[in-house]
Amino acid sequence: QVQLVESGGGLVQAGGSLRLSCAASGRTFSSYAMGWFRQAPGKEREFVAAISWGGRSTSYADSVKGRFTISRDNAKKTVYLQMNSLKPEDTAVYYCATRDSSLVADTLERFNYWGQGTQVTVSS
Prior knowledge:
β7 and β8 (78-83) form a beta hairpin. By secondary structure, the chain is mostly beta strands. The strands form 2 sheets. Strands 2, 4, 5, 6, 9, 10 and 11 form a 7-stranded mixed β-sheet that branches. It has a 4-stranded antiparallel β-sheet with strand order 1-3-8-7, with no helix packed on it. The radius of gyration is 13 Å and the shape is globular. Helix content is 0%, strand content 48%. It has strands spanning 3-7, 10-13, 18-25, 34-39, 46-51, 58-60, 68-73, 78-83, 92-98, 113-114, 118-123. The chain is built from no helices and 11 strands. The model has no long low-confidence stretch (mean pLDDT 97).
């Protein structure tokens, strides 16, 4: 059974940084792509970033390009989201996800397993 556990969320001022982590278990982590999504109050869940099995291919939402960086450590079975220059509009619950493929994807429907989420709040 695949399990994903996010950590690292919290309250930060605008312009600040946070690093989210997602620890995976239940299958061979290094074989599958990983992604981060977020959901703000009253809004639909949206794509943030994704990374391929080996980390050589990444994809980002336009709203976070140049500010967020996704990375992974296959030895630690962990994926990270480094978030810099945070804005109040980045406030959301952030979810880690994985899919039954090694390739990057950027839509919710292509991800099969989800974590419980971690809250990120950016104050102005």
